[in-house]
Design goal:
- By secondary structure, the protein is α/β, with parallel strands linked by helices.
- 32% of the residues lie in helices and 19% in strands.
- The relative contact order is 0.09.
- The structure holds alpha-D-galactopyranose and zinc ion (ZN).
């Protein structure tokens, strides 16, 4: 979204307050340099007091007040919490949990996305809001719902799931093949035999206490369906708005590494992406930085909106320390450094009752300006007013990390070899290396064009999306550097395991064959050596061979089994010019002592690395440093004190380098 100034504001809920308070709010917020208000996020019950009555009178007064006081407005559709009367009259709107419990009215984000009532009344309200407020020239964006998420397992969702499957597979034969239903007698003969994979059917708690499913293929489709089904509900509201105000951008607010929805898919239906950033007091700064880059990535590397952040302490975390002096400024400018063109808070005034009364706000319960938090908000607002040149700039990254939601889901439901596998954590391991080396990174999807990057890292690609391996192969042939890691190339997008040797479609690009994995219990650490240095191996050890070992095995089997069709399958075909990767590192322990753990293949004009295990920050840093060096990628700075992050944005007005000090004491920076 293009703006002339940094948007600075956030969630404002005047409907929770007597109107005499509003005048003070306007004055206090203006004095704090606030220029934007996000309103109407949770007002459905008062906007629609009954089935056929609507009452916009209070919202009219709020909209007028915001306009008359010069505030830009992001207007929410109010549909993230349903009115109690609606649940009483139309129970289809209520969700059903994974154990079959139908919920009563309560809390928020409480609607079933398939509910006919929701699908009728939510877009109706969105359309009415658009009609009513379309002429407010301070209306700069629409905010649909709020933090979409969760799953519903009701009968309506089940019906829609079956329709979604029919559309995807066409025939039950196709579905039975993709889901490998011959396993445990699951063959379906009628679409209506298919049930939602929940705790009443396929799902259970593993020995280690992890929720897991028996039929990965089915569950993965349910995740895909649930994300699409929620998206459909969002689109209904979006379309109702667009029919009236086609030129006003529409968004919904995303969350921190939120697994439930495929944000790469959702962002295609949004005019700009926005997100709510609430780090915990002990969040790793690299994870926080990556979260911003992830959101910038799902938005196509364009500037994003920091829709919410907390001015001081949140209320919902386990422990909610106050932000220390300067921390609010540091975290807000960090968002800007990673691509935000807006800094916004939840909430403008601290609520008087219910869950969020202990949540930080610009105006605290004391109800006055001049508090420590208020003063810092004001000072930051003033600072942002002098930073307009940065608006619209992008991050000139030469390196990228691939982050794929479906792969995340796939890894989370795999049974074996260990419950310690963690896709997000492994991606952060690589991200942290770039972060520590002060090398900017884009987080990208499997659909992104790779050609602009010198280095692409796709950690732990258990599931390979159609066409991705071919794209990587071309990228490397053309001179790119590709890095991937253990348990990559095991399954296709139907969750069917590749035959003919891991890493499936990456075998030739990587020049290796992974024969097996060994899972390491948490108390066991293996070791490996690379460049004369010893590193730790954790979680999983892939046992890597040169590709020619696989070729030989295929030939031996051909000799033993004779000329049979089975071995003519393309899974058993390796090109004549395929070569073996160079051994970089080998294991130092166990029965696989001396076996390759780290390999580098010279493929076409490029290089591709395979890392067979999970290791420590030191290893990732050494690896990424070597890879960056080899690919001609230069860090933004060196000799920067520990705890200082360096980030960059660039546009036609200049290159803006940010030094972000995460320590609570001052440090000296020497620009290199
Ligand atoms: C979320 C929600 C807000 C509010 C904040 C509190 O981000 O979108 O409505 O509840 O959390 O941190
Ligand atoms: Zn439902």
């Amino acid at each position: 979204m293009k703006t002339r100034h940094f948007l600075y504001g956030g969630d404002y809920n005047p409907e929770q307050w007597p109107e005499e308070v509003w005048e003070a709010d306007m004055k206090l917020l203006k004095a704090a340099h606030i220029n934007e208000l996000t309103i109407n996020v949770f007002s459905w019950a008062s906007l629609q007091p009954s089935e056929d009555t609507y009452d916009f009178s209070k919202l009219d007064r709020i909209m007028d007040m915001a306009r008359d006081n010069g505030f830009s407005v992001m207007l929410a559709t109010s549909t993230a919490a349903t009115p109690p009367w609606m649940a009483k009259r139309h129970p289809d709107i209520l969700r059903t949990d994974g154990d079959g419990m139908k919920r009563k009215y309560g809390a928020r984000h409480n609607f079933c996305p398939s509910s006919p009532t929701m699908r009728k009344y939510a877009p109706l309200l969105a359309g009415k809001l658009a009609e009513r407020y379309k002429n407010y020239d301070n209306l700069i964006a629409w905010h649909v719902g709020n933090e979409y998420g969760g799953m519903c397992c009701c009968d309506n969702c089940q019906k829609k799931f079956r329709q979604w499957l029919k559309k995807k597979y066409g025939t039950l034969d196709n579905l039975n093949r993709a889901w490998n239903t011959a396993f445990w007698s699951h063959t379906y003969y009628d679409w209506d035999e298919i049930v939602i994979p929940d705790k009443r059917s396929e799902n259970f708690m593993s020995e280690g206490g992890k929720p897991i499913t028996q039929v990965q293929d089915t569950y993965l489709d349910y995740e895909r369906f649930n994300s699409d089904n929620m998206l459909e509900e969002y689109i209904l509201e979006r379309d109702a708005i667009k029919a009236v105000t086609p030129d006003i951008p529409v968004t919904t607010n995303f969350m921190w590494f939120f697994e439930g929805l495929d944000y790469n898919k959702w962002s295609k239906y949004m005019d700009f992406v926005s997100w709510d950033c609430y780090p915990h007091y002990d969040t790793d700064p690299a994870e926080l930085a990556m979260a911003h880059d992830l959101i910038r990535g799902v938005g196509g590397q364009k500037p994003f909106v920091l829709m919410e952040s907390c001015p001081s302490s949140t209320n919902w975390q386990h422990i909610n320390p106050a932000k220390r002096p300067g921390e609010l400024t540091m975290q807000s400018l960090e968002a800007v450094a990673h691509g935000a063109d807006a800094v916004q808070f939840f909430q403008m005034r601290r609520a008087r009752g219910a869950a969020e009364s202990m949540h930080g706000a610009v105006i605290e319960h004391v109800g006055l300006g001049g508090t420590r938090v208020y003063n810092e908000v004001r000072a930051l607002g003033e600072k942002l007013e002098g930073m307009d040149d940065i608006l619209g700039s992008t991050v000139p990254a030469e390196c990228a990390i691939v982050f794929d939601w479906e792969n995340w889901w796939a890894i989370d439901v795999i049974q074996g070899p260990t419950e310690l596998v963690d896709y997000k954590a492994e991606c952060i391991n690589y991200y942290r290396a770039f972060y520590d080396l002060h090398i900017p990174v884009d987080v990208i999807s499997t659909e992104t064009d790779l050609s602009k990057y010198r280095v692409v890292v796709a950690p732990f690609m258990l599931m390979v999306q159609d066409g991705f391996a071919e794209k990587v192969s071309d990228y490397v042939k053309n001179g790119g550097t590709f890095v991937t890691s253990y348990m990559t190339g095991l399954v296709d997008k139907d969750y069917l395991f590749y035959q003919g040797g891991y890493p499936g479609p990456f075998r030739e690009t990587l020049g290796i064959w992974v024969e097996e994995q060994n899972a390491l219990p948490p108390e066991k650490t293996d070791h490996f050596t690379w460049n004369g240095k010893e590193y730790e191996a954790h979680i999983v050890c892939d046992l890597i061979h040169p590709l020619s070992d696989l070729k030989r095995l295929i030939e031996d089997n051909k000799k033993a089994l004779g000329d049979i069709d089975y071995l003519k399958d393309k899974a058993y075909h390796i090109s004549d010019d395929a070569c073996d990767a160079e051994v970089q590192g080998t294991y130092a322990d166990d029965f696989y002592k001396g076996v390759t753990v780290l390999s580098e293949n010279h493929y076409g004009n490029g290089h591709s690395w395979y890392v067979g295990t999970s290791s420590t920050p030191e290893f990732y840093r050494d690896l990424i440093s070597a890879v960056a060096d080899e690919s001609g990628v230069k860090p933004l700075a060196s000799n920067v004190p520990d705890g200082v992050e360096v980030a960059v944005r660039k546009n036609e007005k200049g290159t803006f380098v940010f030094y972000i000090n995460h320590k609570d004491f001052g440090v000296d920076i020497k620009r290199i």
